[in-house]
Specification:
nine-stranded mixed β-sheet, 356 residues, Rossmann fold, 2 domains, 10 helices, single chain, alpha/beta, 15 strands, Dihydrodipicolinate Reductase, domain 2
């Protein structure tokens, strides 16, 4: 097994989770450099972990000096393309970065094309697939106990570009990695368009897959809530319904199923919560699979950039459907797509908040 040299940009809350993930595999990864504009934050990250990578405040110089195999960047969405272009410039083999993969379809498409052209294996942090609750969903679906799958429903309290990008990815994963044929949708509200992860306030969609399966996804303040308000960020559910029952899993570790095995009674289980699994389980498992893919082209990572791009394309198509009041067929012609966030900002009406 090879050992890969890693350079990482970003040492914030998510950045430190990536650091811990690399450190969980000392036989597979060597974290040789870190980059962060906030020097005290970077110093704290290395001192509390007793590690000694080279420290930088410029990602270009870091990559030029260290020439790593893997470049990980944990930065705001608007600089994704810039970071990928640096990876190409310095010939990295692997990329690991956060969601959403971009803030425009044009940038997301360019990122995918750069990775294809330069044989870069890239993964996007849709790491909740490794939660025990969502793993259970996939296990039950793959077992065939649900019979013929009829539809998949995903809901998130957070807005589209925060967690919608996660859950369309998980829905595609649960569906077996198929492709979408067309979408119809509704969006409204503009307050979140000024967020670092810009988005409409509310998003509702039906996605028709090529095999006839339907995916329904709902994100934002009108989406159903399953947890207390203080658990806003983990109040998300992926549910799969079949002719013989259903299974669902939530970010905070709860899952349930109704199958012939449960004899007509739902079985509900609470596994370790998000806080427990987040740093200790998800990132190490996610990066272990990355090492396997870097070793072997056939062991494609479940969070690879191709499935991430298709999820991004689906979400974009739904927004177009809502604005233009029509069904949108896939794949999208990127050359014909204007920046969707700019369109929503200019074309969506103002929407007053709900009264308490």
């Amino acid at each position: 097994m090879a050992k890969y040299r890693v350079a990482q940009a970003g040492c914030g809350a998510r950045g430190t989770k990536h650091i811990d993930g690399w450190m969980a595999h000392p036989d597979r990864f060597d974290l040789v450099a870190l980059c962060e504009l906030d020097r005290p934050k970077m110093q704290e990250a290395v001192e509390t972990r007793g590690i000694f990578p080279a420290l930088y405040d410029d990602a270009d110089k870091m990559l030029a000096d260290t020439r790593p195999d893997v470049f990980c960047f944990v930065t705001q969405p608007h600089v994704r393309l810039e970071m990928v272009e640096l990876a190409v410039k310095y010939g990295v083999k692997g990329l690991a970065f956060e969601k959403p993969m971009a803030t425009s379809l044009a940038d997301a498409h360019h990122i995918r094309q750069l990775c294809r052209k330069n044989n870069i294996k890239a993964i996007v942090s849709h790491q909740q697939k490794y939660l025990t609750s969502l793993q259970k969903v996939k296990e039950v679906v793959d077992s065939g106990k649900l019979g013929e799958i009829q539809f998949i429903r995903a809901t998130t309290q957070a807005w589209l570009s925060q967690l919608g990008t996660h859950f369309i990815d998980y829905a595609l994963w649960a569906a077996g990695g198929g492709r979408a044929k067309s979408v119809v949708g509704h969006v409204h509200g503009k307050t979140k368009l000024s967020d670092s992860h810009p988005s409409c306030d509310y998003f509702l969609a039906e996605v028709l897959m090529e095999d006839g399966l339907r995916i329904y996804i709902e994100c934002g303040y009108l989406a159903p809530s399953h947890l207390p308000r203080e658990k806003f960020w983990v109040d998300n559910r992926l549910a799969v319904f079949g002719t013989h029952g259903y299974v669902w899993g939530e970010t905070d570790g709860r899952w349930a199923m109704l199958t012939p095995d449960t004899r007509g009674q739902p079985y509900v289980q609470q596994d370790d919560d998000w806080r427990t699994q987040h740093g200790k389980v998800l990132q190490p498992l996610y990066l272990a699979d990355f090492a396997e893919w870097l070793d072997d082209d056939t062991k494609v990572h479940p969070c690879n950039v191709e499935i991430s791009y298709h999820g991004y394309e689906i979400l974009e198509a739904v927004c177009i459907s809502a604005i233009e009041k029509r069904r949108v067929d896939l794949p999208l012609d990127v050359s014909q797509c204007r920046n969707i966030n700019e369109r929503m900002s200019s074309e969506l009406p103002d929407c007053l908040p709900l009264k308490e």
